[in-house]
Design goal:
This protein has 10 helices and 10 strands. The chain has 343 residues and is an alpha/beta fold. Bound molecules: 6-amino-N-hydroxyhexanamide (6XA) and zinc ion (ZN).
Amino acid sequence: MLTFFSEDSRLRQARTELHDGALVSPFECPERVDLVLEQLRQAGFEVRAPDAYGLEPVCAVHDTSYVSFLETCWQAWQTAGHSGEAIPNIWPARTLRQDKIPHSVSGQLGYYALAAETSICEGTFEAAMASKDAALGAVEYTLATGEPSFGLCRPPGHHAAFDQFGGYCFFNNAAIAAQHALDAGRRRVAVLDVDFHHGNGTQQIFYARNDVLFASLHGDPDVTFPYYLGYADETGAGEGQGFNLNYPMAPGTSVATWMKTLEQALSAIKTHECELLIVSLGVDIFEGDPISAFTFKRDDFIALGKRLAEAGLPTTFLMEGGYAVEEIGVNVVNVLQGFEQIN
Ligand SMILES: NCCCCCC(=O)NO
Ligand SMILES: [Zn+2]
């Protein structure tokens, strides 16, 4: 399976993440892609650098002011005299005005951030641009050939909403790729999110639309990040009613139960006659993931890849989460090789 990856993904070298009340070394680290690349190359996968697609595909799903904020935030933060990495510490919380975008970079950080764990630093914007290019290269290849592809996207994207970053995400790679497919003439695209965490950003971007079916299997938001979206009663709005499917599951859910739940999502994708499948591939459903709570073992990822291939759709996999760094490469390659065994 052809893989797309841009070396500029490494440009984000954040030093801090707010975790358990302390600033720690980020779980979403550049070493993640090193380990995936190592396993891909050992398994004989071709890795190709994508074209640079510019900002147009980004602004097809994200707010242009938000994109400009991401591009200028780090410089503005430093110009304002801050010495650490850019981390928000105030939000337009429920009792404050929601219609104000302050000129202060501190105020803008809170306006555009959905969570506080994700810092903005040197190279963040450039890495996010590289990540969405990997996604676009992969989906363009699949659209052109019908063959499956893998976008080794770093940073990940599924928490990024129309005008919000967080959960280690800045541009919603899956949404950008889905919109690109629609702009290329596909009528209906499915985004299947198998990451441990709900893809709140992907949901929000397509929530009122019926040309993208969003289906997500994830840890119950009642007890799992992002907490405030991802419940089963969120089924879409307006024309999008019925085109958003959330399958929250309790921490510790067995793989057997997870795979049975996957059947529900795949059945809906088939019913909706989707022409392209984009898989938000988070391998943080691995039992050893440090910040997640599902129970996949290495070989379960092979079964996952096989089952997805049986859906029989042109498929693009896009990297989302996965923080058990030592095993991330094997777990990713297992999905892709499982898929190829059937496809
Ligand atoms: N405490 C922050 C949790 C961020 C979740 C990142 C992720 O893997 N999302 O899929
Ligand atoms: Zn995740």
